[in-house]
Specification:
Layout lengths: L5 H6 L12 H21 L6 H28 L5 H40 L6 H7 L26 H25 L2 H31 L8 H33 L9 H26 L1
Protein backbone atom coordinates (compact mmCIF):
# COMPACT_ATOMS: atom_id res chain seq x y z
CA UNK A 1 0.00 0.00 0.00
CA UNK A 2 1.53 3.29 -1.13
CA UNK A 3 1.26 6.55 0.74
CA UNK A 4 -0.29 9.35 -1.34
CA UNK A 5 2.11 12.12 -2.19
CA UNK A 6 1.43 15.82 -1.83
CA UNK A 7 0.84 16.07 -5.58
CA UNK A 8 -1.77 13.30 -5.43
CA UNK A 9 -3.59 15.14 -2.65
CA UNK A 10 -3.50 18.41 -4.54
CA UNK A 11 -4.91 16.76 -7.68
CA UNK A 12 -8.07 15.90 -5.74
CA UNK A 13 -8.91 19.59 -5.60
CA UNK A 14 -9.65 21.99 -8.40
CA UNK A 15 -8.27 25.47 -8.61
CA UNK A 16 -10.43 28.32 -7.31
CA UNK A 17 -10.26 31.43 -9.42
CA UNK A 18 -10.19 34.71 -7.53
CA UNK A 19 -11.09 37.55 -9.91
CA UNK A 20 -8.90 40.63 -10.02
CA UNK A 21 -10.13 43.86 -8.49
CA UNK A 22 -12.82 45.48 -10.64
CA UNK A 23 -14.31 48.96 -10.82
CA UNK A 24 -17.62 47.70 -12.23
CA UNK A 25 -19.42 47.30 -8.87
CA UNK A 26 -18.82 50.91 -7.86
CA UNK A 27 -19.73 52.06 -11.39
CA UNK A 28 -23.00 50.16 -11.07
CA UNK A 29 -23.68 51.71 -7.67
CA UNK A 30 -23.13 55.19 -9.09
CA UNK A 31 -25.45 54.40 -11.99
CA UNK A 32 -28.21 53.20 -9.65
CA UNK A 33 -27.76 56.34 -7.53
CA UNK A 34 -28.27 58.59 -10.56
CA UNK A 35 -31.25 56.52 -11.67
CA UNK A 36 -32.88 56.82 -8.24
CA UNK A 37 -32.23 60.57 -7.99
CA UNK A 38 -33.28 61.15 -11.58
CA UNK A 39 -36.50 59.15 -11.27
CA UNK A 40 -37.42 60.81 -7.97
CA UNK A 41 -36.67 64.32 -9.21
CA UNK A 42 -38.60 63.66 -12.42
CA UNK A 43 -41.71 62.61 -10.53
CA UNK A 44 -41.38 65.43 -7.97
CA UNK A 45 -40.29 68.01 -10.58
CA UNK A 46 -37.06 68.93 -8.74
CA UNK A 47 -33.73 70.36 -9.95
CA UNK A 48 -35.36 72.76 -12.37
CA UNK A 49 -36.77 70.05 -14.62
CA UNK A 50 -33.39 68.34 -15.10
CA UNK A 51 -34.56 65.08 -13.53
CA UNK A 52 -34.95 63.25 -16.88
CA UNK A 53 -31.37 64.12 -17.84
CA UNK A 54 -30.07 62.69 -14.56
CA UNK A 55 -32.22 59.60 -15.06
CA UNK A 56 -30.97 58.93 -18.60
CA UNK A 57 -27.38 59.62 -17.55
CA UNK A 58 -27.74 56.93 -14.89
CA UNK A 59 -29.24 54.51 -17.41
CA UNK A 60 -26.33 55.22 -19.78
CA UNK A 61 -23.73 54.52 -17.09
CA UNK A 62 -25.61 51.34 -16.14
CA UNK A 63 -25.50 50.11 -19.74
CA UNK A 64 -21.76 50.77 -19.89
CA UNK A 65 -21.31 48.83 -16.64
CA UNK A 66 -23.35 45.87 -17.88
CA UNK A 67 -21.46 45.68 -21.18
CA UNK A 68 -18.07 45.88 -19.47
CA UNK A 69 -18.88 43.45 -16.67
CA UNK A 70 -20.51 40.91 -19.00
CA UNK A 71 -17.49 41.13 -21.28
CA UNK A 72 -15.06 40.37 -18.44
CA UNK A 73 -17.09 37.45 -17.12
CA UNK A 74 -17.47 35.94 -20.61
CA UNK A 75 -13.73 36.20 -21.20
CA UNK A 76 -12.97 34.52 -17.88
CA UNK A 77 -15.45 31.73 -18.61
CA UNK A 78 -14.12 31.07 -22.11
CA UNK A 79 -10.59 31.14 -20.71
CA UNK A 80 -11.32 28.11 -18.57
CA UNK A 81 -10.74 29.97 -15.32
CA UNK A 82 -13.91 28.76 -13.61
CA UNK A 83 -14.01 25.50 -11.66
CA UNK A 84 -16.93 23.47 -10.33
CA UNK A 85 -16.66 25.39 -7.07
CA UNK A 86 -17.07 28.68 -8.95
CA UNK A 87 -20.10 27.20 -10.69
CA UNK A 88 -21.64 26.41 -7.30
CA UNK A 89 -20.83 29.94 -6.14
CA UNK A 90 -22.59 31.38 -9.20
CA UNK A 91 -25.65 29.23 -8.51
CA UNK A 92 -25.79 30.34 -4.89
CA UNK A 93 -25.37 33.97 -5.89
CA UNK A 94 -28.15 33.79 -8.48
CA UNK A 95 -30.43 32.00 -6.03
CA UNK A 96 -29.95 34.70 -3.40
CA UNK A 97 -30.42 37.42 -6.03
CA UNK A 98 -33.78 35.96 -7.09
CA UNK A 99 -34.75 35.62 -3.42
CA UNK A 100 -34.01 39.33 -2.93
CA UNK A 101 -36.21 40.08 -5.93
CA UNK A 102 -38.99 37.99 -4.37
CA UNK A 103 -38.73 40.13 -1.22
CA UNK A 104 -38.72 43.28 -3.37
CA UNK A 105 -42.04 42.43 -4.97
CA UNK A 106 -43.40 41.08 -1.68
CA UNK A 107 -43.03 44.60 -0.25
CA UNK A 108 -45.10 46.10 -3.07
CA UNK A 109 -47.73 43.36 -2.87
CA UNK A 110 -47.79 43.97 0.89
CA UNK A 111 -48.52 47.66 0.26
CA UNK A 112 -51.31 46.67 -2.13
CA UNK A 113 -52.89 44.28 0.38
CA UNK A 114 -52.54 46.82 3.19
CA UNK A 115 -54.34 49.46 1.15
CA UNK A 116 -57.12 47.11 0.06
CA UNK A 117 -57.71 45.13 3.25
CA UNK A 118 -56.86 47.64 5.99
CA UNK A 119 -56.62 51.29 4.87
CA UNK A 120 -59.66 51.38 2.57
CA UNK A 121 -62.05 49.65 5.06
CA UNK A 122 -60.67 51.90 7.85
CA UNK A 123 -61.46 55.04 5.85
CA UNK A 124 -64.91 53.62 5.20
CA UNK A 125 -65.69 53.39 8.90
CA UNK A 126 -64.69 49.82 9.68
CA UNK A 127 -63.40 48.81 13.14
CA UNK A 128 -65.53 51.38 15.02
CA UNK A 129 -63.98 54.18 12.98
CA UNK A 130 -67.17 55.76 11.67
CA UNK A 131 -66.62 59.14 13.35
CA UNK A 132 -63.03 59.51 12.12
CA UNK A 133 -64.05 58.41 8.64
CA UNK A 134 -66.82 60.98 8.59
CA UNK A 135 -64.36 63.73 9.48
CA UNK A 136 -61.61 62.68 7.05
CA UNK A 137 -63.64 61.83 3.97
CA UNK A 138 -67.43 62.02 4.43
CA UNK A 139 -68.39 60.84 0.93
CA UNK A 140 -65.84 58.03 0.74
CA UNK A 141 -67.07 54.70 -0.67
CA UNK A 142 -64.85 51.81 0.52
CA UNK A 143 -64.58 49.84 -2.72
CA UNK A 144 -61.61 48.66 -4.76
CA UNK A 145 -60.29 49.86 -7.07
CA UNK A 146 -60.56 53.44 -5.84
CA UNK A 147 -61.65 55.42 -8.87
CA UNK A 148 -62.01 58.74 -7.05
CA UNK A 149 -59.24 60.44 -5.07
CA UNK A 150 -59.72 62.82 -2.10
CA UNK A 151 -58.80 65.64 -4.47
CA UNK A 152 -61.75 64.81 -6.71
CA UNK A 153 -59.75 63.16 -9.54
CA UNK A 154 -61.85 60.43 -11.14
CA UNK A 155 -60.24 57.54 -12.99
CA UNK A 156 -61.31 54.30 -14.61
CA UNK A 157 -59.81 50.97 -13.54
CA UNK A 158 -57.76 49.02 -16.05
CA UNK A 159 -59.66 45.99 -17.32
CA UNK A 160 -58.12 42.53 -17.22
CA UNK A 161 -59.40 41.03 -20.48
CA UNK A 162 -57.77 43.22 -23.10
CA UNK A 163 -54.04 43.87 -23.37
CA UNK A 164 -53.30 42.44 -19.87
CA UNK A 165 -54.72 39.05 -20.88
CA UNK A 166 -52.79 39.11 -24.16
CA UNK A 167 -49.59 39.93 -22.29
CA UNK A 168 -50.28 37.10 -19.86
CA UNK A 169 -50.57 34.64 -22.73
CA UNK A 170 -47.37 36.05 -24.23
CA UNK A 171 -45.37 35.55 -21.05
CA UNK A 172 -46.77 32.07 -20.49
CA UNK A 173 -45.75 31.22 -24.06
CA UNK A 174 -42.27 32.59 -23.41
CA UNK A 175 -41.89 30.24 -20.43
CA UNK A 176 -42.60 27.34 -22.77
CA UNK A 177 -40.15 28.55 -25.44
CA UNK A 178 -37.32 29.09 -22.92
CA UNK A 179 -37.91 25.58 -21.55
CA UNK A 180 -37.77 24.10 -25.06
CA UNK A 181 -34.55 26.03 -25.68
CA UNK A 182 -33.07 24.68 -22.43
CA UNK A 183 -33.92 21.09 -23.35
CA UNK A 184 -32.45 21.63 -26.82
CA UNK A 185 -29.22 22.90 -25.28
CA UNK A 186 -28.93 19.88 -23.00
CA UNK A 187 -29.55 17.60 -25.99
CA UNK A 188 -27.02 19.42 -28.17
CA UNK A 189 -29.63 20.60 -30.69
CA UNK A 190 -28.10 23.97 -31.56
CA UNK A 191 -30.60 24.89 -34.29
CA UNK A 192 -33.64 24.42 -32.05
CA UNK A 193 -31.82 26.25 -29.27
CA UNK A 194 -31.22 29.30 -31.47
CA UNK A 195 -34.80 29.42 -32.72
CA UNK A 196 -36.62 29.07 -29.42
CA UNK A 197 -34.22 31.26 -27.44
CA UNK A 198 -34.59 34.00 -30.05
CA UNK A 199 -38.37 33.52 -29.94
CA UNK A 200 -38.31 33.99 -26.16
CA UNK A 201 -36.49 37.31 -26.52
CA UNK A 202 -38.95 38.41 -29.22
CA UNK A 203 -41.93 37.57 -27.00
CA UNK A 204 -40.38 39.62 -24.20
CA UNK A 205 -40.05 42.64 -26.48
CA UNK A 206 -43.63 42.23 -27.71
CA UNK A 207 -44.76 42.19 -24.08
CA UNK A 208 -42.95 45.47 -23.40
CA UNK A 209 -44.42 47.08 -26.53
CA UNK A 210 -47.96 46.11 -25.52
CA UNK A 211 -47.36 47.34 -21.97
CA UNK A 212 -46.29 50.72 -23.35
CA UNK A 213 -49.50 50.78 -25.40
CA UNK A 214 -51.45 49.92 -22.23
CA UNK A 215 -49.86 52.86 -20.39
CA UNK A 216 -50.76 55.26 -23.20
CA UNK A 217 -54.34 53.98 -23.05
CA UNK A 218 -54.38 54.41 -19.25
CA UNK A 219 -53.13 58.02 -19.37
CA UNK A 220 -55.08 59.27 -22.36
CA UNK A 221 -58.40 57.43 -22.10
CA UNK A 222 -58.80 56.18 -18.52
CA UNK A 223 -57.25 59.17 -16.72
CA UNK A 224 -55.27 56.58 -14.79
CA UNK A 225 -51.90 58.06 -13.81
CA UNK A 226 -49.20 57.60 -11.22
CA UNK A 227 -50.79 60.35 -9.11
CA UNK A 228 -54.30 58.87 -9.32
CA UNK A 229 -54.48 58.02 -5.64
CA UNK A 230 -53.41 54.76 -4.06
CA UNK A 231 -54.85 52.71 -6.93
CA UNK A 232 -52.77 54.55 -9.52
CA UNK A 233 -49.69 54.35 -7.28
CA UNK A 234 -49.88 50.61 -6.74
CA UNK A 235 -50.87 49.88 -10.34
CA UNK A 236 -47.96 51.70 -11.95
CA UNK A 237 -45.37 50.74 -9.33
CA UNK A 238 -46.14 47.03 -9.57
CA UNK A 239 -46.57 46.84 -13.33
CA UNK A 240 -43.76 49.34 -13.99
CA UNK A 241 -41.17 47.56 -11.88
CA UNK A 242 -42.24 44.26 -13.41
CA UNK A 243 -41.79 45.76 -16.87
CA UNK A 244 -38.30 46.87 -15.88
CA UNK A 245 -37.51 43.29 -14.85
CA UNK A 246 -38.86 41.98 -18.15
CA UNK A 247 -36.59 44.44 -19.96
CA UNK A 248 -33.56 43.32 -17.93
CA UNK A 249 -34.43 39.65 -18.46
CA UNK A 250 -34.81 40.15 -22.21
CA UNK A 251 -31.42 41.89 -22.33
CA UNK A 252 -29.81 38.97 -20.49
CA UNK A 253 -31.43 36.41 -22.80
CA UNK A 254 -30.48 38.46 -25.87
CA UNK A 255 -26.83 38.46 -24.81
CA UNK A 256 -27.02 34.71 -24.22
CA UNK A 257 -28.59 34.30 -27.68
CA UNK A 258 -25.67 36.22 -29.20
CA UNK A 259 -23.27 33.94 -27.35
CA UNK A 260 -25.13 30.88 -28.63
CA UNK A 261 -24.86 32.23 -32.17
CA UNK A 262 -21.08 32.49 -31.65
CA UNK A 263 -20.90 28.86 -30.54
CA UNK A 264 -20.77 29.40 -26.78
CA UNK A 265 -22.59 27.18 -24.25
CA UNK A 266 -22.28 23.40 -24.15
CA UNK A 267 -24.59 20.72 -22.71
CA UNK A 268 -22.17 20.35 -19.78
CA UNK A 269 -21.37 24.01 -19.10
CA UNK A 270 -24.17 26.55 -19.59
CA UNK A 271 -24.93 28.15 -16.24
CA UNK A 272 -25.29 31.60 -17.85
CA UNK A 273 -28.23 30.18 -19.81
CA UNK A 274 -29.67 28.56 -16.67
CA UNK A 275 -29.40 31.80 -14.70
CA UNK A 276 -31.24 33.69 -17.44
CA UNK A 277 -33.92 30.99 -17.57
CA UNK A 278 -34.38 31.06 -13.77
CA UNK A 279 -34.80 34.82 -13.88
CA UNK A 280 -37.27 34.63 -16.77
CA UNK A 281 -39.43 32.04 -15.01
CA UNK A 282 -39.39 34.24 -11.89
CA UNK A 283 -40.60 37.22 -13.97
CA UNK A 284 -43.41 35.07 -15.38
CA UNK A 285 -44.58 33.95 -11.93
CA UNK A 286 -44.61 37.57 -10.69
CA UNK A 287 -46.75 38.58 -13.67
CA UNK A 288 -49.28 35.85 -12.92
CA UNK A 289 -49.60 37.23 -9.38
CA UNK A 290 -49.95 40.73 -10.81
CA UNK A 291 -52.61 39.66 -13.27
CA UNK A 292 -54.68 38.07 -10.51
CA UNK A 293 -54.32 40.63 -7.71
CA UNK A 294 -54.00 43.87 -9.71
CA UNK A 295 -56.18 43.29 -12.77
CA UNK A 296 -58.77 40.64 -11.83
CA UNK A 297 -59.51 40.98 -8.09
Amino acid sequence: MTTPTQNDVQQEYQHYYVPAQSAWPIVGAIALFFIAVGAGSTVADLFGGNGPYILFAGIGVLIIMLVGWFRDVIRESLGGLYSDQMDRSFRQGMSWFIFSEVMFFAAFFGALFYARLIAVPWLGGASNNAMTAELLWPDFIPTWPLEKTPGGLETTAMGAWGLPLINTLILLSSSITIHIAHVALEQGNRQRLKIFLGLTVLLGWIFLGLQAEEYVHAYEELNLRLDSGVYGNTFFLLTGFHGMHVFLGSVILFIIWLRVMKGHMTPEHHFAFQAGAWYWHFVDVVWLCLFVFVYIL
